[in-house]
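I am still getting used to backbone structure tokens and would like to learn alongside you. Please make up or recall a protein chain and show it to me in full. Would you write everything just below, so we can both look at the same thing?
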Amino acid sequence: MKAIIFDTETTAIVEPEIIEAAWLQVESPRELGVSGKFDQRYKPAKAIGLGAMAVHHIMDEDLVDMPESSTFALPTDLDFLIGHNIDFDWKVAGCPDVKRICTLALSRLLFPHIDSHSQGAMLYHLERQTARENLRTAHSALVDVMNCHRILANLVDLLPGIESWEDLWQVSENARIPVVMTFGEYKGTLITEVPCEHKLWLLKQPDIDPYLMQALTKG
């Protein structure tokens, strides 16, 4: 099965367009050997927002001679897409029909008590001696996928019984089901303790997160 660690840089958080995409094709989750690499910038149809520019430091003038953003495509025959908060990059890539493995969810599962689970924070937690150097050019898509590869290797070492991407995907799926409300009047409350009438109201909302739906149904 084909799996890639994937990251993008975009014009903005809201209605984003890809301006840089990178991935590493990786073999089995236990070995994580890299069998392919991609890194490309793209010219978007709209200007880059200043907030996004301040994060990734890519300016519109850097992209004048790049291919159009609309020409971006993921590899064919892809089965698994891996990344830190992978849903954002998955949506930017057009919501392809692939299974997503989220290293952010896995980080929260394995280290529930640390104060941050961002990619940078996880590198400092897992590989403190080399984290600063590896993060110097963070928010370059290729550097971000390489750092995600490092985090993934550490996480898999801590998860027993992972022999295939399917195994890791299932753990990721379970890790994405919240146990605590993260918004609204019951923010910080265990979902099992949220009143039934509020759960029923949430379940009727048209844009409810599917993982929250699972938690509300179970709880």
User: Anything to note?
Assistant: The mean pLDDT is 94. The domain at 3-176 is CATH 3.30.420.10 (Nucleotidyltransferase; domain 5).
